[in-house]
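JOB MANIFEST
job_type = single_chain_structure
chain_count = 1
residues = 129
[input]
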Amino acid sequence: MATTGRESRFRLSRRQRIRSSRRFSQVYNRRASSADAHLIIYAAANELGFSRLGLSVGCKHGNAVRRNRIRRLLREAFRLSQHEIPAGFDFVLIPRVEDEISLDAYRRSLLTLAEQAVRRAGKHSEQSI
């Protein structure tokens, strides 16, 4: 099946994912975070010109099937919102332990919290100059 321009615009490529523990640590150490009832988001600037996503879904969320469902929902929320959140940042998302949460709830939280975390990341970078 051929992809149209619109479909490829919302693709989540492999390079948009944070996979190394070193980069996760760097994002955590920036301490630019924001949280609500559904998510905790950490943000750190990158030099890439596009945003990347890292997920941390712990065992407290249940068995592997449940954790993988949460990961899929978070990746989909990021994929659909990637053009609305600020570019040039690495985001690590940590879901709060709750019963079933919808994709729309994750997406709303992501959009709101990403803006807040980016503002905090900007303040941290100004202080380190």
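[summary]
Confidence is low (pLDDT under 50) at residues 1-5.
The longest strand covers residues 39-45.
exit_status = 0
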